[in-house]
From TrEMBL:
It comes from the Bacteria. It is an enzyme of class 2 (transferase). Belongs to the PlsX family. It is found in: Cytoplasm. Pathway: Lipid metabolism; phospholipid metabolism. It comes from Lihuaxuella thermophila. The gene is plsX. The keyword Lipid metabolism applies. It holds the Pfam family FA_synthesis. GO terms for molecular function: phosphate:acyl-[acyl carrier protein] acyltransferase activity. This is Phosphate acyltransferase. The keyword ATP-binding does not apply.
């Protein structure tokens, strides 16, 4: 197996990426890791299953995605997606420009047959500690009901194969749990999901219940999903920042913090996105994973673990097979 990493993607690149690659290479000696970057000196020495792929360009976080992908064809993001297409790498991981990664994935890696639009699908931490796949969170701000049906099918296969969930429950993000709630998109998507026999659809899910883990796969359009993602991240940060302020306010607060520290640490770990690695771009014809922009070495390392499972368990082939079957049934 060969897994490629974008050396320049993310707030803590290249240091976090190179450290993650070194750790991953040591953990999985049967896998070759390829670091794609502009400076070969970034490659850790003395590790036999590491390779370097030199590029001359870099897509920045503030670059306009489509223009950058078309103009910077020798950038790490474009080259990584091309390597997956050409089978020079089995998977590609980047913490860089999300829009550029999506554009490069579409232009160079291509889509699975039967997928209209790929979806960005991170795992949300939940209070149960299990985690919930949410798609789409921003790849496609506008969607049609059929897209949401495809998201549900792809998400179900992914969590079953990669996360190990049995008969994953699928929910639809909406403003109420009652049947008939929401926009025309939500109503039509509900009707499609209710009829879909390949998934276990449990109905509408309200945003206030998301962190309780009411389902295993939560389906939504990219506009709503991105708002949900950023609001959840913002609320979590605000809570932890506020707790830190309160527990350092005076001596009695510091003593209370010392007593509660083990439990607070466990809670923080349960809500830590780095445990899940990154967000796959489900629907592309090869495994491409978007790591969080603020990923540290631990997050990138877990993205490598995620990529290995993605490849080993044949998620792409399973999705293609399922969608092909559905297309054949529809055409009869």
């Amino acid at each position: 197996m060969r897994i490629a990493f974008d050396a320049h993607g993310g707030d803590h690149a290249p240091d976090a990426v190179t450290e993650a690659v070194r750790l991953a290479a040591s953990e999985w000696p049967d896998t070759t890791f390829i670091l794609i970057g502009r400076d070969e000196s970034l490659l850790p020495e003395g590790v036999p299953n590491l390779e370097f792929r030199r590029v001359s360009e870099q897509i920045e976080a503030d670059d306009e995605p489509v223009k950058a992908v078309r103009r910077k064809k020798d950038s790490s993001i474009v080259v990584g997606c091309q390597m997956v297409k050409k089978r020079e790498a089995d998977a590609f991981i980047s913490g860089g420009n999300t829009g550029a990664l999506m554009a490069a994935g579409l232009f160079y890696t291509g889509r699975i047959k039967g997928v209209d639009r790929p979806a960005l699908a991170p795992v949300f931490p939940t209070l149960s500690g299990k985690g919930m796949l949410v798609l789409d969170v921003g790849a496609n701000p506008e969607a049609r009901p059929e897209h949401l049906r495809q998201y549900a099918c792809m998400g179900s296969i992914y969590v079953e194969k990669v996360l190990g969930y049995t008969k994953p429950r699928v929910g639809l993000l909406n403003i109420g749990t009652e049947v008939g709630k929401g926009t025309e998109l939500a109503k039509e998507a509900f009707a499609l999901l209710e009829k879909e026999k390949s998934i276990h659809f449990i109905g509408n899910i309200e945003a206030r219940d998301v962190l309780s883990g009411p389902c295993d796969v939560l389906v939504c359009d990219g506009f709503s999903g991105n708002i949900l993602l950023k609001n959840t991240e913002g609320v979590a940060k605000a809570i932890f920042d506020r707790l830190k302020q309160e527990f350092t306010r005076n001596l009695s607060a510091k003593l209370a913090a010392a007593i509660l520290k083990p439990r607070l640490k466990r809670f923080k770990e349960e809500m830590d996105y780095t445990e899940h690695g990154g967000a796959p771009l489900l629907g592309l014809a090869g495994p491409v994973i978007k790591a969080h922009g603020s990923s540290d070495a631990k997050a990138f390392f877990n993205a490598a673990r995620q990529a290995r499972l993605f490849v080993e368990r044949g998620v792409i082939a399973e999705i293609e097979h399922e969608l092909t079957q559905q297309e054949e049934l529809t055409s009869k």
